[in-house]
User: Fold this.
Amino acid sequence: KDFTPANVYIKEVIVTQTPIIQHQTSEQVAILAYIHEVFGKDASKALKVLSCENKRLRPDAVNINNDSHKSRDIGIFQINSMWQQVQPKFLLDWKTNILIAKRIYDDSNSFKMWTCGKRMNI
Assistant:
């Protein structure tokens, strides 16, 4: 295995801050690295939200809501396609999904747009 500083750092974060996955695939390692790159100092908050929203970091995760519109939460950060007005095919791309999540986070300076963010008060 390649234990570059980025991989070692990611493994430390997973173990000590927010246990999401015990045995990561190479895609999950890449996703975690990108979350750290995009969210920077707020990456631990992002991982905390993901420990509730999508703990396996599945880019293909889709949740159909019980609202009157039957809206869908899609991808890594479970972004709602209807409320965010983004086509699902873009939300299934994990890099795009993470960038949109960062924009939503920056707009409110919190994760309260996510159910888990509200529940965890982040």
